[in-house]
Amino acid sequence: MLKQLWQWLKRSFQRFFGRKQNPLGKKRKVKPPKRLTNAEYESLFLQLLAEVNDGLTRGGVKDFFAAKRINESHLMEWLRGFGERLLASTIPNDELATRMVRLGELSVGEVGDVADDIGRRLGGRETNRQGAEDAEEEKTSNQFDDTGELTNNEAEALFNQGVALANLGLHEGAIAFFDKAIEIKADFYDAWQNCGVALRHLGRYEEANASFNTAFNLASKYQIKPDDHIAWFNRGVELVNLGRYEEAIASWDNALKFKPDLHEAWYNRGVALGNLGQHKEAIISYNNALKFKPDDHEVWISRGNALGNLGQHKQAIASYDNALKIKSDFYEAWNNRGLALDHLKQWEESIASYDNALKIKSDDDSVWYNQGVVLGNLGQHKQAIASYDNALKIKPDDDSVWCSRGYALSNLGQHKEAIASYDNALKIKPDDHDAWFKRGMALG
User: Fold this and answer.
1) CATH, domain range 151-224
2) What is the gyration radius of the CA atoms in the chain, in angstroms?
3) In sequence order, which residues have a C-beta less than 8 Å from that of residue 236 and are 6 or more positions away?
4) Are 268 and 252 in contact (CB under 8 A)?
5) Residue 64, exposed/middle/buried by CB under 10 A (0-12, 13-18, 19+)?
6) What distance in Å separates the CA atoms of residue 162 and residue 188, rounded to the nearest whole number?
7) What is the CATH number of domain 363-444?
8) Is 398 left (phi over 0), alpha (psi -120 to 50) or beta?
9) Cβ 434 vs Cβ 27: under 8 Å
10) pLDDT per position as a tens digit, 333-356
11) Model's pTM, two decimal places?
């Protein structure tokens, strides 16, 4: 029997420590963008296809990528794997094939070209296989006995169809099959478990947690043991999605009793501890994760973030360097490395780190902002303003950037322009006391 697809849940959430504090102003932390999980890419791509099907234009696709802050190279990496799974599957996907071809016809670049290729290959395969599918439908209909009674074997067949759909990212359809399997066999542990995972992918966390709880009750009743670590791991992820960090940690502790080398549990446990402000304990969890998988760049950056939150910036930089040895284009690590160097007042090196981040991802407003702050610390106010302007091109409604821009203009003696920047900050956030104070100084 196909078991729980716990691998869907790897890298379920990530937490990066802050963005640079505004000089002479209130302290503010902003999370830089993270690399999306496979599940998140599936959700965004299927959403994009739905909008294309509803008439989204070429420009609209570009706007979609910008609004969702999608790294197209990462999306391409995921899309090729998604295409391989689609083409290897026996599940019919006519509608999905049509939508992928439609995306390709918009000429939106490599993403569209690859989607078009997958869609056309998938569509051609579906046409050739239609006769075989008709025969399979007849075979399936014959699985029911004359009285209409459904057997456990039929419940398992429905379950397996649900798993196949879930593997393709078609979670709504998967849930329908899991529900049918449960109607036939109410104590179907695997169906309850996988239904919970699919619900989680759709953001229906309360329902997912209820599904996992039912699975746990069944596990207790029937003394199910072999996959306990998977069940506990899944439950921990759902509890985190509900903001119940202490309970999530307890679930991962139980998973680790059954499988001490489950590095994903150690990693997620560390992230949850970090969210509770328990950074020392988080580092211990990250260290355990790295014992079992020392080449996990995401664990290294999270470890660096925890060290940074403890003020141990030199050690944090060492962790970021390890992440970058594994993945040199990990722009979040370059960004956070720049933050740590800034805390150590190593501003030239900090700017170099931000430059590396921007070479990889030039449309990240947080990095431009951080670079502007460090340039200001070096007294390079004109260059700082240029960085702030780049940040505002990407995110024009960021009051902190407008305020910092105003401060840089004031340092150049351009007080009228500075006041205009502060006014923009106050339009966005009228209760920004820092902007009011600095505006008063500029009027002074």
Assistant:
1) 1.25.40.10
2) 26
3) 248, 249, 251, 252, 255, 265, 268, 269, 272
4) yes
5) middle
6) 13
7) 1.25.40.10
8) beta
9) no
10) 999 999 999 999 999 999 999 999
11) 0.61
